[in-house]
Amino acid sequence: QVQLVESGGGLVQPGGSLRLSCAASGSIFSIDTMGWYRQAPGKQRELVATISSGGRTNFAGSVKVRFTISRDSAKNTVYLQMNSLQPEDTAVYYCNANIAPRVWTSYTPYWGQGTQVTVSS
């Protein structure tokens, strides 16, 4: 079994920063793209940022100059550094990773349980 465990969410004032972490564990042969998505109340889940196994990044336009994504492949962990947070960033943030559990298996998307980020004064 594969598990993704997120941490680092919480309450922060507008203009503040948070760093999210997501560690993958279990039966893992290889990890391709890792990323973060978010879902605000009453809205659909949306992409925040992704990072490929080669380090190529992709960001939603609304976060591009404020958020940074990175990964530690040795630890099977992806990070999201969020700066200049605004109330509209309030959402549940979900980690996603495309993982091949064993050799000769296909990559399958896995999701974390989500972590709440609330930006409010």
Summarize the helices and strands and which ones pair or pack.
Layout: E1 2-7, E2 10-12, E3 18-26, E4 30-39, E5 46-51, E6 57-59, E7 67-72, E8 77-82, E9 91-100, E10 108-111, E11 115-119
Q: Report the major sheet.
A: 7 strands, mixed
DSSP summary, beta strand count: 11
* Unreliable parts: none
Query: Could you state the order of secondary-structure elements as H and E?
Result: EEEEEEEEEEE
Helical content stands at under 10%
Précis, in short:
This protein is mainly β. The chain is built from no helices and 11 strands. It is elongated.
Fold and architecture overview:
By secondary structure, this protein is mainly β. The chain is built from no helices and 11 strands. The strands form 2 sheets. Strands 2, 4, 5, 6, 9, 10 and 11 form a 7-stranded mixed beta sheet that branches. A 4-stranded antiparallel beta sheet has the order 1-3-8-7, with no helix packed on it. It is elongated. The model has no long low-confidence stretch (mean pLDDT 97).
